[in-house]
């Protein structure tokens, strides 16, 4: 804050300042000096006994996450009470504690924690078995023979129920925030269900096949099923671990790969045009002036505007109840799934601007509106009522007319309301301000265009246009903003490249753990099966028949983990697609292509690892 007195006039040494919640704020202000104060939400400052004709200027440090509306920020003391007010608004967002900046790290940390828990459980289980073992019993164990395994049917059924429940949650979830909240619960259900199915379910299945006499008592099935029965008893947990690690690799690589490869598309959804300018009062004459200043600057510096467009809009948030939308300031819980699911972002646009942007020639009668819904959804009702305004009749549902920063992050459903004229837009704004007061949104004007030049030149153009506007509007109380895509490109690319690299690193760790499990599993099974295959040769089986039996068993056993991992990834797809919507990536066909490609590459790699590790098994059982 700066106070400036009249030339030649003497003023007091300082003037007392009261209010504010910060104890270290200055307690007085001196005319002719700049003084800085710290204020938080709801704070006010008062300066008493200021002389008339003293001019004042109040400025606020800008925050990119907030849009500031200010009144009376400069002027001359000419009344007993004068106010400078600043309102900082973060439009259309709910504080869930997870942002687009920390969301990827939350997900990756969750994966690491789950994988660590899995490794710890395996270590603890092996340690428990060693502590409970009797050394004498171990020495005589080979002579006693192995007891037939007993599968627990209840545990197998529980595993199927857990997997079915997790899959049901995944395919029925609608809201991206709800998907994020349920994600880790579903992951835990999948992990537990996978272990139960591999440990108990596989044994139950083999015992059932053994009871199916017409199938079991055939040479090629008899040996395979009998060996599989004992093999799954010993190695079910190891196979489940391979399956879980495979799923984690596929989920991490496919999701981070989608963000990395699709980063330009995500950025373009937020910046439909290279240069984006906005005036914060929605007055058409101010939007005209903003456009003329930009055109003049571009012509003066030899640049050409391309694909220019402009529109006015009001961005508000409301709670939906059927075809009714209500503004509600209190009682909305950020952690309540019902509140999050019912929240709607609303962009109200006059028909003339909609036709200009889309190139269409739609018409509306009094009381009619057009409505567009993001994600290609249909509006299911024939009418819409906002607050206490008259009910509108929905003429038809139209495609989403454009993207911007409000609509690109698809946390909630967004309605694009095309109303007959600007008077209808101002009616919604007035209705909103009855509830939100100083925190209400204002009608805004948007002007954007493309320009063929480098990122460095784009940034210079944005800075030049901003400076030209500030000079023209120096004495006018008009709030505006300027931004360009080049400013955010380096941030986007750096963030998503880092996430992709982190996904590759963690995926490599999980792949290494999977390889070690597979390799040592083959080694231990080889030594355990060596004596069995010697007995088979003695009773008359040829080496060819034994090798065919080995191939059948090993292929069946080792094909199960990637097959089930593919099943997990398929049902995880709705979850992943909803979570990636939080980043502005909503192209499901693109996500499918990336996921299928990742699964294909992983399958080839898995087969190579299987072929490499299986050689060690063959060498051991053959006595080489």
Q: Tell the overall outline.
A: elongated
| Mean pLDDT metric | 80
Say what oligomer this is: single chain
Runs in which pLDDT lies below 50 for 5 or more consecutive residues are 331-338
Summarize it.
The protein contains 16 helices and 18 strands. With 624 residues, the protein is α+β, with helices and mostly antiparallel strands.
Task: Explain the overall architecture.
With 624 residues, this protein is an alpha+beta fold. 55% of the residues lie in helices and 16% in strands. It contains 16 helices and 18 strands. The strands form 4 sheets. It has a 7-stranded mixed beta barrel. The radius of gyration is 34 Å and the shape is elongated.
Which secondary structure elements does this structure contain, and how are they paired or packed?
Layout: E1 2-4, E2 15-19, E3 28-29, E4 45-47, E5 55-57, E6 67-71, E7 74-76, E8 85-89, H1 103-132, H2 135-144, H3 153-172, H4 176-211, H5 213-216, H6 219-261, H7 263-270, E9 275-279, H8 284-300, E10 306-321, E11 324-326, H9 337-342, E12 343-350, H10 351-358, E13 368-373, E14 383-386, E15 392-398, H11 405-408, E16 413-419, H12 422-436, E17 444-450, H13 455-472, E18 480-484, H14 485-538, H15 543-581, H16 588-621
Parallel strand pairs: 11-14, 12-16, 13-15
Antiparallel strand pairs: 1-5, 2-3, 2-4, 5-7, 6-8, 9-17, 9-18, 10-11, 10-12, 10-17, 13-16, 14-15
Helix pairs in contact: 1-6, 1-14, 3-4, 3-15, 4-6, 4-15, 6-14, 6-15, 6-16, 7-14, 8-13, 14-16, 15-16
